[in-house]
Amino acid sequence: MATAGPRIYNLFPTLVGPMRDWAGHLPRIQGMGFDWLFLNPIHYPGFSGSLYAVKDYYRLHDRIQGGAPEHPDELLRGFIAEAGRHGQSVMLDLVINHTAKDAILVGEHPDWYRRDANGDLYSPRAVDPVDPSRVTIWGDLAMLDYERAEVRAGLTDYWTRYLRHYIGLGVKGFRCDAAYQIPAEVWKTLIERSREVDPQVKFFAETLGCTVEQVRDLCGAGFDFLFNSAKWWDFKSDWLLDQYDEFRWIAPSIAFPESHDTDRLAAEVGSQDTERLAAQLKMHYLFAASFSTGVMMPVGFEYGFTRKLDVVNTTPDDWEQPKLDLTGFIGAVNAMKAESPALNVEGPQRRVTSPHNPVIGLIRETSGWANGSGEGCSVLLINPDENQPHAIDPGPLLASTGGGFADFEDVTPEAAPLPFEPGRDLRLRPLEMRVFRARPAQSRPIELNHLGERGAEHDSATRAWMDELASRRVTIENVYPELDGGRFPVKRVVGDVMEVWADIYTDGTFVLGAAVTYRPVDEEEWREVPMTFVDNDRWMGKLPLTRNTRYQYSILAWRDVWESWRADFKKKNDAGLDVGLELIEGRRFVEHAVGLNEGEGRAALERVVERMNSLQGAELTAYALSDEPRQAMATYGERQYLSRYGCDLEVYVDRTAARYSAWFEIFPRSASPDPSRPGTFDDVSTMLPFIRGMGFDVLYFPPIHPIGRSFRKGRNNTLNPGPNDPGVPYAIGASEGGHADIDPMIGDFEGFRRLVKEARRHGIEIALDFAVQCSPDHPWIKSHPQWFYWRPDGTIRYAENPPKKYQDIVNVSFYRESYPDLWYALRDVVLFWCDEGVRIFRVDNPHTKPFPFWEWMIREVQDRFPDALFLAEAFTRPKLMRRLAKIGFTQSYSYFTWRNTKAELTEYLTELTQGESKDYMQPNFFANTPDILPPILVHGGRPAHMMRAVLAGTLSGVYGLYAPYFVCEADPYPGKEEYNHSEKYEIRHWDWNKPGNIVDYVTRLNRIRAENPALHKFTNLKFYNAYDDNILLYGKMTESKDNVILIAVNLDPHNGHGGTIEVPLWELGLDDGAHVQVEDLFTGQRFTWIGKFQHVWLDPQQNPAAIWRIRPPGR
Length: 1115
Description:
Layout: E1 7-10, H1 26-31, E2 36-39, E3 43-45, E4 54-60, H2 62-65, H3 72-85, E5 89-94, E6 98-100, H4 104-108, E7 125-127, E8 135-137, E9 141-143, H5 149-168, E10 173-176, H6 184-197, E11 202-205, H7 212-216, E12 225-227, H8 239-247, E13 253-255, H9 265-269, H10 274-291, E14 294-298, H11 327-338, E15 349-351, E16 360-365, E17 377-382, E18 390-392, H12 394-400, E19 405-410, E20 426-428, E21 433-440, H13 461-470, E22 475-480, E23 490-493, E24 497-505, E25 512-520, E26 527-535, E27 538-544, E28 550-560, H14 561-574, H15 580-594, H16 599-614, H17 617-624, H18 627-636, E29 639-644, E30 649-654, E31 661-665, H19 681-693, E32 698-701, H20 749-761, E33 765-770, H21 779-783, E34 798-801, E35 804-810, H22 821-835, E36 840-844, H23 851-864, E37 869-873, H24 878-886, E38 891-892, H25 902-914, E39 922-923, E40 925-926, H26 935-955, E41 958-962, H27 999-1011, E42 1022-1024, E43 1031-1037, E44 1044-1050, E45 1057-1062, E46 1075-1080, E47 1086-1090, E48 1093-1098, E49 1105-1111
Parallel strand pairs: 1-2, 1-14, 2-5, 5-10, 10-11, 11-12, 12-13, 13-14, 23-30, 31-32, 31-41, 32-33, 33-36, 36-37, 37-38, 38-39, 40-41
Antiparallel strand pairs: 3-4, 6-9, 7-8, 15-16, 16-17, 17-21, 18-20, 19-21, 22-24, 24-27, 25-26, 25-28, 26-27, 28-29, 28-30, 34-35, 42-43, 43-44, 44-49, 45-48, 46-47, 46-49
Helix pairs in contact: 5-6, 10-11, 14-15, 15-16, 16-18, 19-20, 22-23, 26-27
């Protein structure tokens, strides 16, 4: 488990009096679970009396010495020891950017100080950013001069002695005041020298109020922690998460609800309403403790103190009467924090609710991507609204976690836990915050199920047939979703709520009941969710999908004995008929159900029987029609003529990356920053910040295995390679190994493992190419010659696609003598790379290999690694592409690459999103590949590259771009839709800063995708009217309509186009003249649209596309 982050209590020295009295506070602080004590400067101050104007660094402040006879060192040493016995380390405030003007150091080393034009000591000052004429000068302070090298050396030695002295007294940490005002190299030296004395001493950088650049300058200085600005967040803006992501690469951060430098939160809130005050203080402390690795709290916060701490005037007389007591709550928060791994590391943190959702949702992870690695995640949900409760569905939040976590549990202190289940809203009171903790999803071993014989034999086949029919008196048919009669699973993603529909009816006028029964395949117990009647014999149930695994589901239906009796009984009673016999009949139904139950069910039914026996006449009639017997029989009554749908269906629940991810394709051998040598895995590692900075989360490599030398191809697919030509990566196999080995040109397994680990740290997955083909030099040809095709003359048959010939590649035979050994060998190759941390495979030309093999292999892998994803690179006939998706491929390349006109795109995307394949086929829209350079990119230039990127990235939740796309390289090989000087045949060097690149544009596009959940799905796409044939208008919105995106794209890369568009106000329940707030997500402009008809103009040179976020009234 991750080491717990620091939980710091700021014991403000002059508020708590002489040091001899401080020990009295330690039991309370220990009870609240703090493990650090932070002391503001305790030294003897200068003439101003300010704690931060230090005169003598080796003498205690008179009010802290308090007349004690002990030497200051012994007094401090004793307190530190007592704090240690209470489980607390002591941290001093380290102020080395200035001293008091009358400091001893001024007399000893006057040349160590900055001077003004008159030669006087220079005081620190601050200029008002709004009104530069207003300057604040701290006249009691003198700034030290670190700019001159000779002075810097003396100062560094002086502070080294100071640090070593106090470390020798037991001090374990130092809060470095205004750390950004001291050069990083000074800090580095001081920290290194301090750790020569105590390797465990910690340094905390106070960097509040400075620029991002100043914080960056401290990177590498050796700080263990720095303080962040969470206290000032408005729970809306993006800046805090941007700061968090920027700072976490420098050092873990510490948040606080208030500090000695700020006003008291209780004073800001107002202390008259103690319930409101408690809610505010609890929410802000829980947020501070949960947002960062560490948390700090000043003395008095636990009691709602309102007086601001003053570095000059605060005394023990300022100790206030407590307005409330939060010590128990704070202790529970600190205990929860210490036990929650994700709250103690500065792992990835991001917002998982849409920008306009009133509930703020954050996810914190211990690492960038979870597939059983790491130590879990935490989800923070905050309702900062003081007046209104708000609800949120956990389903989209589950999806946002990526499907890599399971068993979400509410660990909010002092709160009854809430369930975290898709489709079941979480309701947060005003100012309420909830913390959920989850463990990494672990692959669980399961027993594979195979279809077998249909039950026991009977004496008579006729009787068996009759019994089977009799058991299905209630008809269940026209089930949705069901793929090919249950032959294949449908596909969904973690966090989805799958609606299961069916026609359910029977003979007569019975009242029916129905339920969806389901289970993850690795669990024995079947669960149920009820189905409700919709209309016309159509029923529907909602199945929550919480795990990345394979589920089985079916439908149960039965005659509801009680409801059937009750309906007839009510009709007869309403008609004034004698219902005495009916009441006897109803009681017998309940009595019969008693015998079918035990425990709680039996007791509930016995109470109904007892009550019916004790009543007569109108009272009995009224009770028989009441809710108590109705509920008891609904829960425990007999399910008469219980029928089960004819087969158990399956849904494969993928993790979120199956539906939403952005792929970046590169050849590792082209990743070198030096064009004179090939790239390696380590070179790719250096690119990870660039790739992640653009917003890509999947990094895909063509084959990385040894490349054959026989018949090696030269540049542009020539047959006469030069000695330095690297060969085609798809010609797999050489003396160095085959599919489970690495081309030594690009690295080794240690380098690959480093890359996988570093990629995960950046939130990126590595995807590998799985190409079932070999070079003539592949080791299998010698070890398993029976796996290949041989010609009559004894030569091996190389691959052909007449008239094309691939002399450097040979194909395997899946049947004959190869079966089943080759199947096992290929499966084991994929499992090998799964064990190396790879979970995504792009499969080359799967449509040219036997479909039964793929179905078997993918299931074998996913039964062991449910998070494994497979992308089918199959540009083939539509039915073959759909079959590949049915048999298990997670994603598929598509014809998007060749759909360019408005009519083509609309027709094709409507087919994909509305047709039957929407339940099992997820397209991955690659805008280019090493094999395909679409003509529109050739003649359309940079505008076409921008336009097609927007189409790919917003029409589909999954899309990809291959390296030359970013620099708009589109030089075609004559007569082909392929790149000239293709990277398949030679090493290329890409200059990402090349003039005309679209790196910034793609970065913005990916950020738009990430920030808007509506763009994470595929099937929510809708097209709208744009009255220009070159303008494609479409939109996506979340189910709750809290995120509404409208997109217009100019499909002509050469000319500007504009015209009237129809804003789909009707989708939001608005009339045609309604007002909506709009934000242009590319430009950041905000404005109001009035009415559904608006005008757009798109210039391909400037803005080939517009993406608008619409905020309806009331949101």
